[in-house]
């Protein structure tokens, strides 16, 4: 059940981050990947800042922040070429 919730939160976080940064989502699989990687990145960032996210809402917020940061970093790397 935890894997299913992780995929749902990842997909939702990726969709929200896509809408916040470029005006659209990345498709179902793309949203899930961006959300899951964003969740990992958000978790690392939160730990570095001494913050904690608990529950589904906390996980979603952390994943969205990480996904927005991921999209920003990828956009900067792609823009340099």
From TrEMBL:
Pfam families according to UniProt: Transgly_assoc (PF04226)
Membrane-related topology note: Multi-pass membrane protein
Main location (coarse class): membrane
Record keywords, A-Z: Cell membrane, Membrane, Transmembrane, Transmembrane helix
Transcription found in the keyword field: no
GO cellular component: plasma membrane
TM regions (residue ranges): 28-49, 56-75
Cleavable signal peptide: none
Keyword Chloroplast among record annotations: no
Subcellular location(s) of the protein: Cell membrane
InterPro entries recorded: Transgly_assoc (IPR007341)
Domain of life: Bacteria
Family, as annotated: Belongs to the UPF0410 family.
Descriptive protein name: GlsB/YeaQ/YmgE family stress response membrane protein
Naturally occurring in which organism (per UniProt): Oceanimonas pelagia
Lineage: Bacteria, Pseudomonadati, Pseudomonadota, Gammaproteobacteria, Aeromonadales
């Amino acid at each position: 059940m935890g894997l299913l919730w992780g995929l749902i939160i990842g997909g939702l976080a990726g969709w929200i981050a896509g809408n916040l940064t470029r005006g659209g989502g990345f498709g179902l699989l793309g949203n899930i990947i961006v959300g899951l990687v964003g969740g990992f990145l958000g978790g690392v960032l939160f730990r570095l800042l001494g913050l904690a996210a608990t529950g589904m809402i906390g996980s979603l917020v952390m994943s969205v922040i990480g996904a927005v940061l991921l999209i920003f970093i990828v956009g900067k790397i792609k823009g340099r070429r």
